[in-house]
Amino acid sequence: MESSLEELLEAVASGALSPAAAKNRINAGQTAALKAALDDKSTIALGFARLDKDRKARQGCAEVVFCQGKSDDHLLSIYKALAAAEGEVLGTRASEAQYALIKEALPEIIYDPHCGILKLERQGKKHRGRVAVCTAGTADIRVAEECAQTAEFFGSHVERFYDVGVSGLHRLLSHIEEIRKATCVVAIAGMEGALGTVIGGLVASPVICVPTSVGYGASFHGLSALLTMLNSCANGVCTVNIDNGYGAGYLAHQINRQSKLY
């Protein structure tokens, strides 16, 4: 695919092919790839699961495994198949028992018990661009690490700014110049969830808000923070689901890789 694209670009540069004709050829190739995917030619069929081996080519990132709720046999088969196809695997919401299970088959697997990330990762990976991951409090770090490690797995450089919540605004302001350098900022907060709005009013880059289930009774397990973030008056702010560090990390990486820094 890369060599074909290179040939097209050379043909355009030499004048042998018009830009419009090159665009048509690229579109035709993408359509053919999509048809192949719909025909299941890009699927690893395991009976109980259909793994999408062409997702990285289509979307830029390979398929990720949601470990929670999967049986041991299913999870083990999925990890083996993706490791063979991709050379690396990212899993979220994994348990200690699942880690022990996968480690027997894939000894190089890495597990973070705090955030539940279970990954097999290529060595020497380059991390580019700049994503800032901020938390209101220490209790939000579990979700923040799911976010940060997801973005890092896909190739983004992540800088962490933890415990910079609005109850001590000076803590955030002492780091704001560094945070402003990021191509995307993730604001992770429980309680009333005000951190996203405050950061949104201070930076020029997109802000992804992640409400967490941290808080007392009236926080309703993160619903209070979710509603605050959804109703933010700051511009350039979007919100993912409660405790969805993975979703925020994936989106932050997608934004980051469109930037000039990446």
Task: Tell me what you see in this structure.
The chain is α/β, with parallel strands linked by helices and 262 residues long. 43% of the residues lie in helices and 18% in strands. It has helices spanning 2-14, 19-38, 55-59, 72-86, 96-105, 141-154, 169-173, 176-179, 195-200, 223-230, 245-256; strands at 43-45, 50-52, 65-66, 89-92, 110-112, 117-120, 128-135, 156-161, 184-189, 207-211, 237-239. The strands form three sheets. It has a five-stranded parallel β-sheet with strand order 8-7-9-10-11. Strands 3-4-6-5 form a four-stranded mixed β-sheet, sandwiched between helices. A two-stranded antiparallel ribbon has the order 1-2. The longest helix is centred in the first third of the chain and has 20 residues, at 19-38. It is globular. It starts with a helix and ends in a 6-residue tail after the last helix. 37% of the residues are buried. The model has no long low-confidence stretch (mean pLDDT 89).
